[in-house]
Amino acid sequence: MAARMHDDDSCGAAAVASGWSLGDKDFAFLSDFVYKHCGIVLGEHKRQLVQGRLVRRLRALRLDGFDEYVNLLRSDPDAELGELASAISTNVTSFFREMHHYDLLANELLPNWIEKKKRSSDRLRIWSAGCSTGEEPYALAMVLAEALERTGSKVDARILATDLSPQALGAARAGTYSLERMGGISEERRNRWFLKGEGTYEGLACVHPRLRELVTIQPLNLLHEWPMRGPFDAIFCRNVVIYFDKPTKQRLFERYAGLLEQGGYLFLGHSESMYGLSDSFDLVGRTVYRKCK
After folding, report:
1. Domain count of the fold of the chain
2. Is 189 found in the same domain as 78?
3. Which spans of this chain does the record mark as coiled coil (predicted)?
4. Are 140 and 236 in contact (CB under 8 A)?
């Protein structure tokens, strides 16, 4: 999940208004639960934030306190995990964020991959791990579709987009965006890859059916088992691992290496680094890593 946690005054106000307090025992359980299932470390300084965010969830579930919520997590953790992750996280994403990654794909990687796949009849696969509300995989799909059009290729090419948050996945599947969220897209691409919303979607832009054909959206917890076997030519995992501790990052990078083609690429966010965490990759660009063994 491409997400971040930040302080929110409204969260604290909501918690105070509710009269509920997140005690030591329940916070300790939630911290352990979130770390185990999401890889996110919740320090004591995040208690007020967590308390305020979860008050909304307690109300939605008609629960009378944090102890009842903890009991719900104990009895059926998988059923509530996605909602918990959504509640404590703020999705941060945009179209063509960190444009140099897309330039590398369009100008160098995709032309080479497509030519290679044409000769070998192999599949071309890209994974957006932590796709949030869909801006990243649809931006990747635009670049991929344009590369395929330029070559006239019939290569079997697809993008897998995964996230833990049910709300984020719902938005990604809808593929409809306000005009304010289209700032990173050129006018040419807006006209080519988006349709003007009508009726219920008045005032919104809807992604072109061709992009939907290229993108498969699925729920996935990066810390749990992965059903896909790869191999992938590239994995985008941007603004995700910054909130993990060192052991979690190390395990995740090795799992990514196991799913990448030899010489495949891993893209991280602008504030993330693999330095001292993995021997399986070489740094080849700004937060761009290539599998070396």
Report:
1. 2
2. no
3. none
4. yes
